[in-house]
Fold this protein.
Amino acid sequence: MATSTAAPYLALLGEQDLNLKSYALKSINDIVDELWSEIANNILEIEELYEDESFKDRKLAALIASKVYYNLVDYDSSVKFALVADDAFDINEQSGYVETIISKAIDQYIRLSKEQYENENSQVEIPKQLQNIFERMLNKAIKENDLKSVIGLSLDSYRLDIVENIINEQLKVDSEENVLNLINYTLNIATSIISNTSFRSKILNSLVSIITNLKTPDFFIVSKIIVNLNDDSLAVHLFTNLLKSEETNNRLIAYQVAFDLVNSSSQELLDKTIVKLSELNSNESSPSPSISKIIKILSGIPSCDFDITFLHKNNNTDIQILNKARDSLESRNSIFHSAITFENAFMHAGTTDDSFFRSNLEWLGKATNWSKFSATAALGVIHKGNLSQGRKILQPYLPGSSGSHYTKGGSLYALGLIFAGHGRETIDYLRNHVVENGSSAGNDEVDVILHGASLGTGVAGMGSGNEEIYEELKVVLYSDSAISGEAAALGMGLIMLGSGNESVQADMLSYAQETQHENIIRGLSTGIALVNYGKEEQADEVISQLLEHQNPLLRYGGAYTIALAYAGTGNNKAIKKLLHVAVSDSNDNVRRASVIALGFVLIRDYQTVPRLVELLSESHNPHVRYGTALALGISCAGRGLQQAVDVLMPLTKDPVDFVRQGALVALSMVLIQQNEKSNSKVTEVKELYASIISSKSSDALTKFGAALAQGIIDAGGRNVTIQVENGSTGTLNTKAIVGLAVFTQFWYWYPLTHFLSLAFTPTAIIGVREDLKIPKFEINCHSKKSLFDYPPKVKEETTQAYEKVETAVLSTTAKAKARAKKSQKEKKEDDMDVDEKPEDKTSKEESTKKDEEKDKEQQDTTITSEDNEDNSVSKYSKTPFKLNNVTRVLPNQLKYIAFNKDERFVPVRKYKGNGGVVVLIDKSPKEPIESIKTVRQLNNKDAPLPEPFHLENTEEED
Amino acid sequence: MTQEEQIVIDNEPTPEEVNRLTIAKIENGFQLVSKTVQTFDQRYIFKTLRDLVSIRKQLNLDVLQYLINKYLDDDYQNYLLKFIDGKLETNDELNQFEGEILPEINFLIHLLVQFYLLDKGELSKLDELNVEYILKLIKLHNRRSLDLINAKIWFYISRTKELLNDLISIRSELLLALRISTIRHDDETSGSLITLILRNYILVHDYSQASNFIEKIELPKQVSNSIETRYYFYLAKINSIQLNYSDSHDFVTTAIRKAPQTTNAIGFLTSAYKLNVLIELLTGDIPELSFFQKPGFEKVLKPYQDITKAVKLGDLKIFNETLTKYHDLLIKDDNYSLVTRLRSNVIKTGIRIISLSYTKISLKDICIKLHLDNESSAEYIVSKSIRDGVIDAKINHQKGYVESNEIKNIYSTNQPQDQFNQRINFVNSLHNDSIKAMRYPPSSNRTEISNKNESQDDENELINALQEDFEDDFF
């Protein structure tokens, strides 16, 4: 039976005799769980007993105090006393009290060690006991073989030493494969969760040293780490290691790693690696052919070549959409002309198919001034990645030709876009133009050329960190001309992308405060944002400097700096700051920018974005609504997320024109490469675009948005997507993010729209042999083909129907026709009247077509109806269908892809759903194989150069 | 459902039909419960629990037997059937429930068994079930959706112990459970446990422990009304014993205000009213006559009305008579000790009446009027009343008389302001509480999404159901 009061024992505490006190404490300890509320009245006395250092049972007193505080829900004090209770506190006791205290203690330990790690000068001292408890708990978990949680906890508390220990211990007892799993797990945590950059690199460095000491190191993990660390010497080390042995397999692995690096690392890293490797090669007496090959791969030429081959070969553009948009939008109006230019550029991005220009010379001739600039630059988008031919194709327009300065400037920009991120071959040419004209900026003609040259240089030399180019661009900037200055500022940012270089930032920031030109300030603030790409907390200082500036243009830059510095981190502090600015800044542009920036920060947590911005999408401020749309477009780009579509759809009916524009563009970004199966809204959205473009009542901005959106949703001959995260390495796709960030500046300057092309990633699997040839063979896809098909093309009536529509129709006849139509429908006749509007017809035809398809499927399989609602489970089918090498494989489709192990070609890396270039092992290399010729090879041999078309002639005719 | 009930009433239903209907209702409740598990919306379970109150009367062996056989695994079946003397049905026709049995449903069936045993008066059996099985079962699960059900189950565990007069043994279990539920943020369970612990202390008259306890705990904010009401009542009770009459008065009025004004809670209201009368008397106020004439309460409040009368008259003799007359009843109400404290109030009232009627009166006359033994005790009492602020007067010790000061204009004092302030505070807090209790439906902007309509209907239905008159199982 429980005692009903603790008063007698509490009274004993007041006695002089120490033995009595001890006795009282022991008795109180037994009843504290029930009578804590009474004992709490005397808590001070008990604490005093603990503080009395001569008292032998002071630990017991601490324990009792801890228990009382625990019952009083004051966990901090409870932990404090539990810690000092030392061995009186039994860590192994099975009770709610002990569990709670331990979990709180661990929380506290993590908090303290974080504090300690982050401010080196801080006086934070972690109590020994706390560390003791922490380590004891970890040891317990290690004994229970719960290694992953131990690793997670130790990384949380910045205890790299424990992680290293575990992995080393495991190496002794476990198979290497399991250990590699652990390493991979650690790597994932390090790259996705750890927010402290210096600690992250510490982890990565230690992992590298562990891996390289393994008997069978996993080089792909190392390559991931190289990308994360941006460490060229490590890359060189890896390659030389791999090539030391004569084994083919290792050589192939080296090639695969090289391809991965091209895909995911910065140009600076590639450049430096190439330089070091060639030094190595030239030092040796006989240059190793494999190293030369790796140098070649790292130059990016083969990758670009493969991509462009894929896009060229599988080009599936729906030219009808484009033609119809061209006919509906009056090209004399420059905004519409630009709209068609961009639509065409995106639709054909990377396909090298510029037939639209050639067959519409008259239309092209209507381009004036800057729309001519954009039109020429569009060639760069279309030929993006065509490194071998790019220069030749643009030759007729480049400076030195007889064209206007707008074509010249545009062509330089185009050249930059072609070589985006792989600018080694062309950067010097572009630089020359910057240097030549740099001193005479301010002159109208020269300004336009400089604008193109600066942008081109920036794009081509993106992330190269080249100081010389930077200085050259700075000359242009300092001549203080609004047109060239803005481009130069952007170019400087692009060159220094992600360097976080302090003197660069100081230069740019001080000039931004000096100049009077808003364009330049804006260019500079975006430039500063670019310089801080991926810098996270290292950019905090400049962020707060910008955000607190009185000039709204610089605050605008501050928002973008957060966007790029914290891109994809989902950092809470950054989000908080952005949300605050989004609702409190006095300037609309800043608010818009900060909402857009949310999209960048949450790239990895894209599912949370619709919920987060849902309320903002109903803001009274149209700029915030516009920002919401773009934020969704950016974060959910290419993901086809239904919730994002649900938020965006109402925005397409917004009362403000530019909000509608943003919503249309964002929808296309979200729904890119989706078909009816993967997202049921696609058809509706596409019809919406068409109807906006053809409707007379829509305003210019909305129509521009719709045209742009049509281009994006069917981009790259429908074979590209916007991929902001590299599937294979889990790193962010820098090029895509930069492309998106500069693209969003099209609000101020349409030519920057072309930057979106940087974000387009071909969706393909390209298998290559050791000799970098693409053999013809087949891959299995364990799914149903219809799930990943192209959306059906729009079927268009002949132009006859158009003429009929455009003739004026009297209201009475219209009514009569409507009546006729109605009666017709009732009769359910299949034949349609010629007078019917073309959209009606197409949509009807489409729907009948859809019905047919559905019927067909129902015959084929029984589970089609569930298909749409329930994915993942029913999508898998055991009987695969065959895909050829170099075909379109959607990101969602990758997980259903399998290579047949018994075939002649198997990937050198265990296949885990990676797209892009896959290096293959050829099991019978002697046998002949038919290979697919790349664009480069085709051009080298027999293909004649495409005929240049002449803008000027047509213009003169006007 | 209402239609069905109509028919049933018309046709003098057979027991089987009633059973079937009951089972249907319960199973309907189970479905709501699974909805809670899916949507994390506690309101569905809340509704189920409320429905169970009305079902409780129709609960019988057959219904329980059916439910246990259908929904539970062997482990649970065996002992539950043993307790209710039910049979295990191995008949194949009885389709075993398909799919996973949610712990929530399992707990609900346990709760139903508790109802059944309690209503049948099988206390020792129920106690055995509670101690042997249910306590262990509760510890096994850690789910937020069990919060509301656990709160109920704890209530009946404690209630059983109370009826068996074995309050001490359960106390430590209650305290332990309170700790765990606080850590898990199971607000309803914590709230329920807090009231149970308080009740436990009060029933054994351990007021000092109870006051220690309330000083150190805090009732979670998100608890149901019934728990909050009880909590305030117990607070009032403890505070009144501890001589904090004004706090106590606040608490008891809150409790009365929050209590449901329906027949289900009549027992609770009566005790609250009784306490209220005593506290008002102790603070020196006299309740209005209308207070005792509330329909349905006239009879039970009669003794208290008599006491009030005695206090009002300030007549010790009548007071003592009333006290002896209702002695047993007051002990039963556990209010006797409070009533005895009224003696001094009776005297004070007497003095006040005297001071109102006479501007000057000799101590001797006071003795006679108040039936006091001698002048010195009268002097003592008057001086104490002056100090307590009951009357505003002066004693002339030499000449042995009391002289009242002139009554000031009450509007020249701060009193009206204080009253006004008090009322405004009350209204404001009522307003705030009402706003906090409101639920805002999710954005109406996206109602167009088709499949939402269904859940919208559900939501409306639920809201309607919850807005119906509040019933709860007070006793």
Summary: Residues 31 and 88 of chain B are 24 Å apart (CA to CA). Chain B has 24 helices and three strands.
